[in-house]
Structures are given as structure tokens and as C-alpha cells.
Specification:
With 511 residues, the protein is α/β, with parallel strands linked by helices. It has 14 helices and 22 strands. The strands form eight sheets. Strands 7, 8, 9, 10, 12, 16, 17 and 20 form an eight-stranded mixed sheet that branches. Helix 7 packs across helix 8 and helix 8 runs parallel beside helix 12. The two termini are 41 Å apart.
Length: 511
């Protein structure tokens, strides 16, 4: 049960360009988000009045979050004027305990932002699974990769995108991390996803034989599981590619929640990591859900938690999705029960306090991947850092797709990286590469006595813009439309473009 006191106004001060790098401690963030003492007393009195014993109430983050343990469903129904029942997802058969509505005392309504679990039914999902990439086939314009693995041959199309290619293409091959005792890369797994150390070893033997000793640690959160004998391809992929790009930077895999979890996976993980004295400098998360599945109060609260991570010096990257502007016919019902078509961006990618990563494909030229998720948030307004970048795109778009998207919403993605033809894995997986590159940039900063980057977007849309490769070709079809097109400048297919590590290092070296 989180307080409605927002941390964003105060936290924005410490992520804005003029204060960049002045990150906050756990205690400083908790002080910002803590509710007034009289509000906390009021909430505790209400709970005790309904038979919730004080010993079952715990507070976290300066009292901004109250957790109740051992409360039976009957008491929760009475407490919240709710009707909790088990609900099963038609597509996945996942079961959760939820209520269709709930209520709070009038004196608390303005102070409580969200109660969970209640009406939030969304399940974090990995990108849609596709058949494994086919091998072989005709190639054209074949080229040896400078500094690549012996015998590595690449082409401008129809060729596996290996770690050697990614390191060459993004210009990280010659960089050797040196702040490995002060820089950590976190990878988050939900729904029981878990990697295998044996798979990682085999992957590194095949694709980066100078890093076969690469390993990772595992943290199990709430009902997280870890059984390396039963790995999932999504978790394997995340660990393998972040390891291949960022080695020897330490990596932590966070196992959070199972598919039948009754809790909330995003909040469970955020609650844990925000409680740490020392947090990872970079975090990669591929999971998301269509924004329309998320209630505004829940989305706002979770987004504010990501803002807290940014203020503590954490760079958080989310996939923008792999369904273009939306999967299927994109029919939604409005409040009157009428059906209408609407483009479907993904949350938490649409949260303005994370960096949203789309996909590209090919080189010479690099173009937008057709599956790259992109669009405009319905829940979150356009953040200030996009005020110069987004309007030119909308002006050129004109009246096309009027009514299918929110032109005043937060635009996604922010950046894009190679997303197609990763060997033995699935389509559209650019965020691990992005997280690996950002982790290397954090290593550069830390090894030179500077603070980690933290929240990235003010930098990306500002002084680091010249360190990006603008993508001007391709589109992201969906919802039975051609989708948006990649154009000069920002666009809702590839964002500002792909990362050039060497140019970004040169920019960061000047301040």
C-alpha cells in the first residue's frame, strides 16, 4: 500500500543535466518519498481497527509502502470492501487472486496511491516467442569483421548477429573494463525464468572464447526460483548477451516471481532492489505488457519507483516490445463499450523514467527492425527531455493515424540496437546489447573517478545525441497498418538511433 506522495519532482532535480551524477543514497530517497507522520498514523489506526495486528504490518522506504502479512482473504474483503476471487488468464492459464474493485476510507483516499494486489491483472511478459533463427542461406556483400573471431563472416543481410559482430559494430571490441569491483550489471527474470551456467559456458566457448570463465550470481526474490537444470530461453539469452558484451563486469540475475504468483512481480523486485544499500549501476529487463492492461494508479506508482532507481544512479533499460505498433487488430473497448482501434505501446517501456530500447537490423545501412515496438503512451504525458525531439516527427506525420495514438504522450523507444538474427535465440532482443554498452560506459565513468550515468534520457536527448547513429529507413507495421516510419531525427520506431560506444566515450570524457 504505497503513499501517494510523489518522489518525481524532487528526484528530477538530481537527474537533470545541471546536477547529473549527484546521485542519492537509500536514506535520502526514503526521506523524499516518506509520507507525513500523521498520515502513517492514520493508516495504521485504520488497519488496527479492522483487526490487523501491528506485528503483521511492516513499513519500507521511509514508510511510503506498508506491507501486510498473514491477512486472510475474508479480512481483506472487509478491509477494502472488495470481493477477491481467483482469475485465470485465458491465453496462459496463469491464475491470480484479484478483485474487480476496492474502496478506502475517505480520509485515506488522497494519501494512498495504489493497493496491490487488487485490480491489476497484467502479467509481465517476455517478447513473443518466434521460431529459432534459421541458419545458412544466401548472403551478400560479405565482409570480414575487423578484430572479430577468426573466420567470422558477416553480410549486410541474412546473417547471424553474433557477439563479435555486435562488439565490432557498436565499437566496444577494444575496450577492457577496469572498474569491475565497483560496477555491476543486473538482469531481471520474472515468471520463473532462469538461466543455465552450462548454457552460458557453451555460448561463450562458441562466441567469445576469451571469456569462457564468465559467470553470474543469482538472487531469489519473494517466490523466485532457481533451477539451472531447467533454464528458459529468455533468461539464457539475457545472461549470454550481457556477458558477451560487458565481460568481465559482474552480473547478477534476479529471479522474481513464478507464473502462478499471487503478488506483483514488478513491485516485488523494485521493493527489494530499492532496499539495498548498494544497487547495480545498470539493469536490463525485457518484460512488459500492453499499456491498456495497466491501471493508471498502478503504472504511476511503479514508474515513480523506477525514478527512485534513476536518482540512486541506476540506468534502467526496457524493451519497447516486438509487435510494431501493436499485435492483431488492436481493438479496444472504450468506457461506453464501443470498440475502436488504438496502437498498443508497452508498459513499463512507456514510463518516462526508464530508457526504452527498440530494434534495428542490418548494416550499411542499418535500418529499423519491422518488429520494433514503438508509439506514444496514453498514461504518461511527454516528458520535458522529449520536447525538442518529438514535435518535428509529429509535424511531418500530419493527420496520418489520427485517433490511433496520443500525440501528447511519452514517445517510445528512446534508442534502438541490433535486434534480428541473434543465433539460437529469438527475434528482437536489443536491450541486452544496450545494457552491456551502458554498463561499459558506466565502467569508463567509474574508472575515471566519476559517478555512474544513472537515469539516461536527459543525456541521450541532450549532450550525448551526437553519439548516436540516426536510423532513417524502415517501419514498424502492426494493428493492420503500415505503422510508423523511421525518419531523420527521433521517431517511434528507432528513437534517437543506435549507440556508438567510441563517440559516446569521447563525449563523456569532456565532463
Amino acid at each position: 500500500m504505497p503513499s501517494s506522495r510523489s518522489a518525481v519532482p524532487a528526484i528530477q532535480i538530481f537527474t537533470a543535466p545541471r546536477r547529473y551524477g549527484e546521485h542519492l543514497s537509500r536514506e535520502e530517497v526514503a526521506e523524499i518519498v516518506a509520507p507525513p507522520s500523521d498520515v502513517l498514523e492514520l493508516a495504521n489506526a485504520w488497519l488496527e481497527h479492522h483487526g490487523v495486528h501491528p506485528s503483521t504490518i511492516s513499513t519500507k522506504h521511509g514508510g511510503s509502502w506498508l506491507t501486510l502479512s498473514g491477512v486472510p482473504v475474508s479480512r481483506a474483503n472487509e478491509l477494502l470492501s472488495a470481493s477477491y476471487q481467483l482469475y485465470q488468464h485465458i491465453g496462459t492459464n496463469d491464475t491470480v487472486l484479484r478483485t474487480l474493485s476496492y474502496g478506502l476510507p475517505a480520509a485515506l483516499v488522497e494519501h494512498v496511491q495504489s493497493v496491490a494486489p487488487t485490480t491489476h491483472f497484467g502479467f509481465p511478459r517476455t517478447p513473443r516467442q518466434e521460431p529459432p533463427m534459421r541458419r545458412g542461406g544466401e548472403t551478400t556483400e560479405q565482409t570480414k569483421v575487423p578484430g572479430g573471431d577468426p573466420g567470422t563472416v558477416l553480410s549486410s543481410r541474412d546473417q547471424d548477429v553474433t557477439p563479435s559482430f555486435l562488439r565490432w559494430f557498436n565499437k566496444t571490441s577494444s575496450y577492457v573494463p577496469s572498474a569491475v569491483d565497483r560496477n555491476v550489471l543486473g538482469v531481471v527474470g520474472y515468471l520463473g525464468d532462469q538461466p543455465s551456467p552450462d548454457d552460458l559456458r557453451q555460448f561463450m566457448n562458441q562466441y567469445r572464447f576469451d571469456a569462457t570463465s564468465a559467470a553470474y550470481s543469482v538472487v531469489q526474490i519473494v517466490d523466485g526460483v532457481y533451477d539451472p537444470s531447467n533454464p528458459t530461453i529468455e533468461a539464457d539469452l539475457n545472461i549470454q548477451y550481457t556477458s558477451a558484451i560487458a565481460y568481465p563486469t559482474p552480473r547478477i540475475f534476479y529471479s522474481t516471481g513464478k507464473s502462478d504468483s499471487q503478488g506483483d512481480e514488478f513491485i516485488n523486485w523494485l521493493d527489494y532492489v530499492l532496499g539495498l544499500w548498494s544497487v547495480p549501476q545498470t539493469i536490463s529487463t525485457p518484460y512488459g505488457m500492453p499499456e491498456y492492461e495497466v491501471s493508471p494508479d498502478y503504472a504511476t506508482y511503479v514508474c515513480n519507483l523506477f525514478a527512485q532507481l534513476g536518482a540512486r544512479g541506476v540506468s534502467v533499460l526496457f524493451s519497447s516490445g516486438n509487435d510494431g505498433v501493436g499485435r492483431g487488430n488492436c481493438l479496444l473497448q472504450d468506457s461506453s463499450g464501443n470498440s475502436r482501434v488504438q496502437f498498443l505501446p508497452n508498459f513499463p517501456s512507456t514510463c518516462p523514467w526508464v530508457t526504452s530500447v527498440g530494434g534495428t537490423t542490418g548494416y550499411n545501412p542499418e535500418i529499423a527492425a519491422s518488429l520494433s515496438g514503438g508509439g506514444f503512451s496514453v498514461l504518461f504525458p511527454r516528458p520535458s527531455y522529449q520536447n525538442n525531439a518529438v514535435p518535428p516527427f509529429l509535424l511531418n506525420l500530419g493527420r496520418q493515424y489520427n485517433g490511433l495514438y496520443n500525440p501528447w504522450g511519452r514517445g517510445v523507444p528512446d534508442i534502438a540496437l541490433q535486434a534480428m538474427r541473434c543465433p539460437v535465440v529469438l527475434k528482437n532482443e536489443p536491450w541486452e546489447t544496450a545494457a552491456g554498452i551502458i554498463s561499459l560506459l558506466n565502467d569508463y565513468r567509474i574508472s575515471n573517478g566519476r559517478a555512474p550515468l544513472g537515469f539516461l534520457n536527459f543525456l541521450l536527448y541532450g549532450r550525448c545525441l551526437e553519439g548516436l547513429n540516426d536510423i532513417t529507413s524502415g517501419s514498424n507495421p502492426g494493428c493492420n497498418t503500415d505503422g510508423f516510419s523511421a525518419v531523420p531525427g527521433w521517431d517511434p520506431v528507432t528513437g534517437l538511433g543506435s549507440l556508438d560506444f567510441e563517440r559516446l566515450v569521447a563525449i563523456l570524457s569532456r565532463w
